[in-house]
Amino acid sequence: MSIYATLWKLKFPKEGDEHLNCEWIEVTAQAVPPHIGSPTSGCGYEGGDPYAAFLPPALQTDTDGDAAFDRAVVFVTEYSLKGTARSPQEYVSPLLVVTGEEYSRLKFTELHRRICDALRGNRAPVVAEIIQRDGRHRIIRSRKAK
Known about the structure:
This protein has helices at about 100-105, 110-120, and strands spanning about 5-15, 25-30, 70-75, 95-100, 125-130, 135-140. The chain is α+β, with helices and mostly antiparallel strands. It has one domain. The protein has a four-stranded antiparallel β-sheet with strand order 1-2-3-4. A hairpin with a 5-residue loop joins β5 and β6. The chain is elongated, with a radius of gyration of 19 Å.
């Protein structure tokens, strides 16, 4: 059984910047409910949190396992295959991991920027694209990667 619940799936530029003929990739937001790993008696984790090594800290919950926020939201692509030697529930290469509280406060523009930055990796952001009369185009990147 998975500890994740899918919140949404959206397409993003595969390399973090939209431009002519760019490829797109699906990014999935996976929530980790508040009861997962919770130290609250009755949630089933009295022996410890098996996900502490790769998720934000576990949350105290009410007796039903509910809390004001999810424990975490993990953003992944098809390349973020699940399962590591440490845990079959861990994503190998998540783009971004935030607490549920942080996710609830993030404006979409900031979330979009952070996901695109993660997709871009060490490449500098695209600042311009030149489309010539013959149809060829050239991408111009800023001098420094963020």
